[in-house]
């Protein structure tokens, strides 16, 4: 977004707001590379138990069932209701811990998606998270994994705590180990993020909440709306809506999407969310 907004400023005759920084030294591996941890983010994705959809190949990129994309809007009151649930000491032993909006909303989305997909109680489901690593060294993805039955039955505060703990593992020591691992991975194909890695029973939620899209003015006004150009099954983006609301753009299989839209309306949110469903498409 720094690049896009600088480009838009220059298109309007303004000086660059940011000078390009091309020093990649921080991304170099140590000599010799010395990975210290088992990097679970590069493990094969979880696959469906009793899979009836012929999706046994985790690298397969085309789901057998048709998919659809929906945009769900959460009002500020609904976000506050979820936040209040996560701050309830009866649901959370760490009642003094403050959770981010992303952590809270992603916990709710993960639980709803697992219910909507009808996952078996003993089905492992993995959540892919992108962490802003500029203050931690580099951007990598911690993957909390839990059995679906436990996920959907536990208090939401416990799910949020799972996400918070996973994010907190991304410290300097772990991320330097990641850079070393990527210098010579055991399986080069395994470090690539392909559509199959977040397909059911897994999920990937990316935060665009802090991206400054509203400043991208190329001379004909600020953006009216924005969203991901292409989503694949199991991936969603959280971003700011209007008047303090949040929007989720997500792609799921058609059958799961219908159930998901109902589940995000339940009392976990504290009210009904507005929604609009995009045209169904097969990815």
UniProtKB/TrEMBL annotation:
Q: Where is the composition biased (Polar residues)?
A: 43-67
Task: Spell out the residue ranges making up region: Disordered.
Answer: 29-67
Among Gene3D superfamilies, the record links this protein to: Chloramphenicol acetyltransferase-like domain
One GO molecular-function entry: acyltransferase activity, transferring groups other than amino-acyl groups
Q: Which domain of life is it from?
A: Eukaryota
Family stated for the protein in its record: Belongs to the plant acyltransferase family.
Identification of the protein by name: Uncharacterized protein
Which species does this protein come from?
Answer: Linum tenue
